[in-house]
Amino acid sequence: MAAFETTTEIAARADLVFAEVADYTLAAKWNPAYVSVEQVGGIGPGLGAKYAVIFTFYGRQFDLEYEVVEFEPKSRLVLEATSRRVNARDEIVVKQNGGGSLVHRSAQFNFTGPLRLLDGGLQVAFENMSKRAADGIAELHAA
């Protein structure tokens, strides 16, 4: 299993930042590992919303269906995905910080079945992928 945690400071109000990260259809804008994201369940962001995500990892494409399992309007979003190959959990918390905001993201990812043999190199690759996503979130509101 691989895990990653980061906090990013953004020069934009928390409500604006949360609106963008909560609409997970926009995640391909800030997460360079994502090829595409499409909402396949629910209406808009919120509890129970489901998203079909195609992402690249180790040069291969994978697809996952993420579901919002916890949602606190304007502040917190937790998504989980389980497939026969992968289990993933992503939590994003946005808080006001003066005139800007702090985005705290924690994510866990692990392969299942035969792909779990890749777990040895998973942490380093996952950290790199997650750092690029954190940078992408910061660039959403860069001046």
The count of β-strands is 7
- Strand percentage, roughly? over 45%
The name of the CATH architecture is: 2-Layer Sandwich
Number of domains: 1
Structural class: alpha+beta
Helix content: 10-25%
What's the name of the CATH homologous superfamily?
START domain
Report the total helices. 3
The CATH class assignment is: Alpha Beta
CATH topology: Alpha-D-Glucose-1,6-Bisphosphate, Chain A, domain 4
Identify the strand order in the major beta sheet.
Answer: 1-7-6-5-4-3-2
- Give the N-terminus to C-terminus distance in angstroms: 36 Å
- Helices and strands, in order, run as EHHEEEEEEH
* pLDDT < 50 runs, ≥5 residues: none
What is the gyration radius calculated from CA atoms?
15 Å
- Biggest sheet details: 7 strands, antiparallel
Shape: globular
Query: How confident is the prediction overall: mean pLDDT?
Result: 85
Structure explained in plain terms:
The chain is an alpha+beta fold. The chain has a 7-stranded antiparallel sheet with strand order 1-7-6-5-4-3-2. The longest helix has 22 residues. It has a single domain, classed as START domain (Alpha-D-Glucose-1,6-Bisphosphate, Chain A, domain 4, 2-Layer Sandwich).
